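[step 3/7] fold_predict: job queued, chain A
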Amino acid sequence: MAGAGLDEDIRHLQQRFAEVKSEIGKVVVGQDGMVHRLLIGLIAGGHVLLEGVPGLAKTLLVRTLASCLSASFARIQFTPDMLPGDVVGTEVFNPQSSTFTVKKGPVFGHLVLADEINRAPAKVQSALLEAMQERQVTIGSETFLLPEPFMVLATQNPIEQEGTYPLPEAQLDRFMLKVLVDYLSKDDEVKVVERMAGAGAEPKAATCLSGEEVMRARAVAQQIFVDEKITRYVVELVHATRCPKDAGLAGLAPLIENGASTRGSINLVKAAKAHALLQGRNYISPHDIKSVAPDVLRHRVLLTYEAEAEGKRADEIVQTILESIPVP
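[step 4/7] structure written:
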């Protein structure tokens, strides 16, 4: 597929995802940025970590997105007493036949909501690693493929640290995007209160997109053109998070403990392709890269104690790099 055929597919998919945004907008008010990034993750085949204080419609948005897709939805409420088998499943012994049968866990869904993922211990968090990276789960001696499209949407609370277990680097790196969810504007909050506390029935989103269309969108996004200059630009950005001195940003060196891996470069291009598709274009521009870079890189730039003592944030460092690296 190329040329006019690709353009036609992109226009069609852009319209279809606009319909999804419209349906979500009937339920969720004022979180257009979060909706856009969830769709980027869905199209790019990546997982998304949503971070924000309670009550900002994170869980509602994920549920609404699932209702817009003709796909299965599973919600896992992470707690400190969970075991890995509570996520992926386990073998159950049948005394009558003296055999073991596999009972699959809630991870066997198309959209999996890992609610408050940082409330479970590391061994439970790591149970998701194989599922997120390999799209498969091993239970006992058997390996099971997960359904496609498969996507993990995790939430965590940034302010309440008591009883939580920070996600290890290996787990964080499996998320394509980390999206920061902020408070609504006053006008949007008025709309939410009127809608949810009013006398009428709560609005519902209609199913408007099939799993096959999601897989089609992923295939089309892979064909979006990426110029070599754009690829080099991406590598320069990611390399600057590892070796800021090489990029002429010596002032950042004492602030960065570790930078983004090669997976960060790959995910940056994949997310930019999805962003371009949603914009109706068959090529990536520097604007696409800059639009998704903060969400792709913020959880991959680990700060030093010095940076934390100075109150620096990863977003500030990523923004400095974006402003400093020349655009092709």
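[step 5/7] annotate
The chain has a mean pLDDT of 89.
The chain is about 45% helix and 15% strand.
exit 0
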